[in-house]
Amino acid sequence: MKHVKQTNNWRRNLWFLWVGNFMTGMGFSMTVPFLALFIDTLGTFNKWQLNMLTGIAFAITFLAKAIVSPYWGKLADQYGRKPMCLRASLGMTVTITACGFVPNVAVLIVLRAIQGCFSGYINNANAIVAASVPLDRSGKALGTLATGNVVGTLLGPLIGGILADSFGYREAYYVTGMMMFVVFMMTLLFVHEQFTPVQKDEMVPTKQIFRELQYPLLIWGLFITTMIIQAANMSMTSVVSLLIKELCHNHGQIALVSGVITSLPGVVTLIASPLLGMLSDRIGPEKVLMNGLVLAVICFIPMGFITNVWQLGALRALLGISDAALLPAIQSLMTFYVPKSGFGRIFSYNQSFQALGSVGGPMMGAVVASMFEYRSVFLATAILEIANVLFLIPATKALWHAGPIRQRGPIGGQANIHEINS
């Protein structure tokens, strides 16, 4: 009976946390389309000032997230991951709602920094599912969970734009804040975590966790891969619409085409993530990860030589398959090779690297596009991905002949997870 109850717990948690990830992803992305327009209403700025302030307001959230995530990860290992989900969703409720009342851009930037400090819902949701799901189903479960954030991030800009056009910029923040409060209440009432609080003096130090990792190079490789994936995705955000304008010779519905082209990888990722998650359960997530990176290189290189929008759309759709392979594979590998006692901290470090990618990606894209041309950003991203592949080859070499993950010995997190499911 205990086993059945725990099995039902992870299934129920998966679906409620999927909704939580969906609404959190939407909450982060809903205000992106009109952020610059909203800032423009808070003062009188020239073009350069508006671009700089928008860039700072956008990046400050991710920079703050990168700095504080390890601290929240330590608390997650000490007190549990559900409290961290509640802390993140309630913090976002307050900060996003408060953005609707700001009198000037300085207050907005401060609030967005605080929002970044209170983030962490998605990585703690991943940790809750990873710590309880049977290993032979972890790929599919984490792949399914990843689609929640993808769909939310995909639909957020569309819904945010509709709300801003229909009711106003400030009202869009109020609705987003209410949505995050729903996430808080849903997590409080319906997500259940079996976790025994650990006294501070009994916690395994973070340095010891890293020292005891069987494959430390692999874990650092996963951190770097997460950062590069995010940087690759974000490097295009500042240039895609301008590139499309150039490809369309400044004719046609450029905004609409840009929206469709931007959303294509997310649509494909939504469909492919659970399927590739199941594949990683059968052949091993390290194989899915490496092939996903190779596919990303194959996509980015020809993007640097496109001559029309159709070519760009087809390659970005193919890139969605790569995205679907990469993030769930990373989560599966960390689930298996990290001790359960360190899940919160390791997953939070991974989130910090992801946030650094969100900061560095747009900066790289802007610099490369300014020095060369828009398509050069894709070639620069391909070079990053190639370097990532070369780094991961030795990091994953020992795993390639290990077979499906369910057949591997009790390494790292597996022994702990079996204790949960026994």
TrEMBL record:
PROSITE patterns: MFS. Residues 13-397 form the Major facilitator superfamily (MFS) profile domain. It is found in: Cell membrane. One of its GO terms (molecular function) is transmembrane transporter activity. One of its GO terms (cellular component) is plasma membrane. It is a multi-pass membrane protein. The chain crosses the membrane at residues 15-38, 50-68, 88-111, 141-160, 172-192, 252-276, 288-311, 317-339, 378-400. Coiled coil: none annotated. Keywords: Cell membrane, Membrane, Transmembrane, Transmembrane helix, Transport. It comes from the Bacteria. Pfam families: MFS_1, Sugar_tr. The keyword Cell membrane applies. Its main location: membrane. This is Drug H(+) antiporter. It comes from Paucilactobacillus vaccinostercus DSM 20634.
